[in-house]
Amino acid sequence: MKKKFARILAAGLAACMMTGCSVGQKTDTPAETSKGASQAETTGGQETEGEKKDTVVYGTPTAPVGTFLPILSYMGSDTALEKLIYASLLTFDSEGGLKPYLAESYTVSEDQKTIDFKIRQDVKWQDGEDFTMDDLIFTLEQTAKSSSDSDKVSSLKGFEEFKNGQADSISGVSVLDGNVLRLELTEPYAPFLTDFGTYGIMPEHIWGEIPQEEWEKQTELLNYPVGCGPYKVTKFEPGQYVSLEAHDEFFEGAPKIDNFILKVVNQDAISAELVSGNIDIVDVKELRSSEVEELEVQGFTQYSIPDNMYQYISFNLRRPVFQDKNLRQAILYAIDRALILDTIVEGRGKLLDSPFLPGSWASPEEGELNNYAYNPEKSKELLEASGWTDTDGDGVRENADGEKLQFTIRCSNDSKTRENAVLYAKECLAEVGIDVEVSIEEDSVVADDCIYNHNFEMYALNCYFSDDPNPYGWWHSDSASDEPGVGSFNFGAYKNDLVDENIEKGMKTTNQEERKEYYLNVAKQINEDVPMIFLYAQDREIMCNPKLENFAPYTFNIFCDIWEWDFAQ
Fold first, then answer.
1. Distance between CA atoms of residues 432 and 331, nearest Å
2. Would residue 309 be called left, alpha or beta, if left means φ above 0 and alpha means ψ between -120 and 50 degrees?
3. pLDDT tens, 6-48?
4. Closest Cα to residue 170, out of 192, 141, 212?
5. How crowded is the C-beta side of 328, counted as CA atoms within 13 Å?
């Protein structure tokens, strides 16, 4: 069963309220310059003079696969739609803080090991059934049984006994006074509130009679799920769109916009789709700055938020050649990342040197890490020190055994910006005697073959910062896998005892200053070892219909309070 690829590759919590996740900065343009977006027919309907639009259309280049279930979903578009279909105990507000959702309120004990959630009693599933405490217990137990998401609840008392079949229930889960869910942890675990608190609750009456190992085969239920969130799926057209309609009995009140459509759009047609009115919201970070400026001139509203995605090139440390730290550092010194940011990314982002969201509380301060500024001479020195020389004068270095310093970078095709960055990196590496072939391949092929089958020398893709900075799933030794077919989000199989120790310490305290110190130790060691080339974190720029009201995107959820969205007449 595949892990949620986009969230975990992300991808993956409680400290998000302090990460600096911000609301999108809105850029307004004069209404009289607007043309196109609010006048044309959309996929879901047409705006008539004097009438409000009743459908909001979100454009994305990534087609959902129709696995709309928290335990099984792994593609970004599927997990994004889950925020509309399902509800969770807690959700994020527009500043990135946690707030009650299915829970009316919650309390945490002084020792940080007991959490009580008081559950709302006005919740209905989208098929009309009442939401019950059994649904919460069912979701907890199924998550514990899951091969992909069990880590979210592994800190609960009795988890191991239940997971191993030694108990019929999780001892740390109980119901008090009819509508209070008590969760007891074995020890303080900082990410728990976000790990499970923001996890979509699943209906027992739909899935309870089906063995979990059979869930992947339930195509109809996965394509047309039953949740208790603000919108329910009415039509799934693979590769084209997903239509949803408002859940009239949604506990926060029926959404103000009747319909939501996720439409798959070609990246090359984003501007045309906006101008023609076919979509209302779309990410535009792949557009050139001049194209974005032209859309603003036409009256569309731009929002800019810190992106939770970064671009990287991973080394496969399972390969003997990449176990040489000198080689890895030499490759990083040889690539002019500042030029990539300034020219290819057009300055619309940030460089990074560790796996922490730039600007967040967990991110190292400037000067605390080696920034590996472009230095081809230093690169050559390191290569020479490791015995890589060009003895035959063909421009490609070889070792004492005559083996050439050449390899392939497999690059996902879902970002032209990344493609161009990797192609430029190839040129940089050629300058220091490293021969690289770049293979541009389908996104799903790269993900499956590299992440699950570990079949690569180097590969380029995107990874997501999780809403809590806990890096366990990506950088702890236990998260690595060498077995083909077993997914590893510790992509290159990096293993380091000091990193493991500090990650574990960071999970066991809710004190932010202590966690920051532990994560600085993690960042310094990874920065020294260079198991991955961190390229850049591009700003997330969103363009939308200027008549859309109450749209307040932030780093980890652009659909924040979607039931409050509305169109001005």
1. 9
2. beta
3. 333 333 323 332 333 333 444 443 333 222 333 333 344 455 5
4. 141
5. 25
- Write out the two tokens for 422: 């990797």
Taking only Cα atoms into account, the Rg of the chain, rounded to an integer number of angstroms, comes to 24
The one-letter amino acid code at 336 reads D
Distances from the Cα of 416 to the Cα of 286, 302, 420, 543, angstroms: 7, 21, 6, 19
DSSP alpha helix (H) spans, 363-470: 376-385, 416-431, 443-446
The Cα 313–Cα 409 span in angstroms is: 8
Query: Distance between CA atoms of 300 and 108, rounded to whole angstroms?
Result: 44
Q: How many CA atoms lie within 13 A of 352 on its CB side?
A: 30
Task: Summarize pLDDT for 439-466 with one digit per residue, the tens.
Answer: 999 988 898 899 889 999 999 999 888 8
Could you tell me which residues come within 8 angstroms of residue 202 by beta carbon, excluding any fewer than 6 positions away?
69, 70, 71, 86, 135, 138, 139, 142
Question: What predicted TM-score, i.e. pTM, was given to this entire model?
Answer: 0.74
Query: Smallest Cα–Cα separation from 316: which of 476, 460, 503, 471?
Result: 460
Q: Which helix (H) or strand (E) holds 108?
A: strand 103-108
> Which residue did the predictor score with more confidence, 221 or 361?
221
CA-to-CA dists, residue 454 to 316, 319, 447, angstroms: 8, 10, 10
Q: Which residue has the tokens 């693979």?
A: 238
